[in-house]
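Lab notes, practical 5.
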Amino acid sequence: MYFVFDEFGSSKDMSKSYIDELRTERVSSGEDTLCASLITVNLAEANEGTKLDLTIQVASLVGEEMITGNRGGWSAALDNLQEYLTK
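Output from the prediction step:
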């Protein structure tokens, strides 16, 4: 059995998770960092399929447009995934 504890001492049973992944991403222009992201993906069993939990944290060093673009990109990717899986 595999549990994850948060900072408040609550636990989550992860034993039925397929994937629990943490990724970082950095967008740069030359040597200048434009934004940094922390992305957590968890795929787990659900009653009628698979549940996707996706958390994206973005820190932009160049303004709100970078966050808006990041959100738009991820929204399009998830829409495409849903369309593909429901064919």
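Observations recorded by the TA: The helical segments are 64-85. Residues 64-85 form the longest helix (22 residues).
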